[in-house]
Amino acid sequence: MTINRLNTRMSAFSGPPFTPQPEVSPSIEQPPSTAEVAEHLSPQQALPQQPPQPQIQADPAAIEGSADIVYLSDLQLRPVEWLWQDRLASGTLSMISGEPGSGKTWVALAIAAALSRGRAPFTGEKLKPCTVLYASMEHDSSEVIHPRFARLNGDGARFVVLRGAVSAPSVLEDALQRTHARLLILDPFDSLFGPGGDLHQPRETRSLLGTLANLAEKHRCCILLIRHLDKRGPGRPARRGHGSTEISAALRTEFLAGASPDAPSQPTLLQVKSNLGPLALPLAYKIDDAGNFLWTGPSTLTPEEVLATRPTGAGRPERRFAGEWLRQYLQDGCETQGTIERDAERDGVKIATLRRAKFDLGVRSARDGANGCWYWALPPQEEPQPAVKEAR
Fold this sequence. Notes:
Shape: elongated
Largest sheet: 9 strands, mixed
Oligomer: single chain
């Protein structure tokens, strides 16, 4: 028997005829919405609700042209932190002005020496010792600063000298960060910033002083500026010092160092400004021929007398002027006759007139048996006797 293989193969593919399907245009199915999905899910499978996004509000101070305001009731009262009571405060600018040779640097170093030892200047009141940072372009640290500071009995381990010119305030920033100084002395401050800055221009002055004030506030230190006064003449120190009047306006405390033309050998440190409290008493000081600095006590000198163009005793009788000079000279205690006569001649008082004034005042003289020197002293003040009523 013969098998027809061709028919067998053909029958394997037999079936209904092929009919072509119509073409379907492609379409993009849209995803179901959240509500449609939630309808097909159980309550446990419902999608979580998205929390509302917080709205970011811009800082009004960061918007250009907006005002940065604060209510006084929201500010925390901070008491003044004094380095030297009523004179130098932490976080502020201060300044000592005076003519060349008035002893400004001596005064600044005397303050620094006392604070480095934990003592208040003049009174010696016990304080917490602090580090002092000193910058100067006029005085050599090894020839001038070091011997003076040693004579003042300062602590050299707490006295740091910043050498060279201050090319930028960032140099002071770095020095304060490294030393943690509580007092920064710039002597004189106008020569430390190079010839590029003109302190007679108010705009440049405000910019520089604003930077220094920020440094003082940030590091909680007092920045003490030393400034030269121009030649002697009338007017306030702010108008006679190097730089514009903007300098004095930025200070919290300001001092004047100098002496009256009537008594050049009796200089005084006077406070002429304080935004933090009442003015402190003037303090007289003395620098002897051996180079020793000494506070001599309160003084009655006024800023007008220090800034006078000529002696206030000019035109008065010489004997009366000599008497006033001698009374003021001896008000702090006795002194040797040789020292008195030397200082009198320096201040324009003749020796003969001085001895007549000594008689007028009743000045007492006594000889020291140990060294053979004669000492002069004012007579003791007699206490007023109470009035006695006469019996009738």
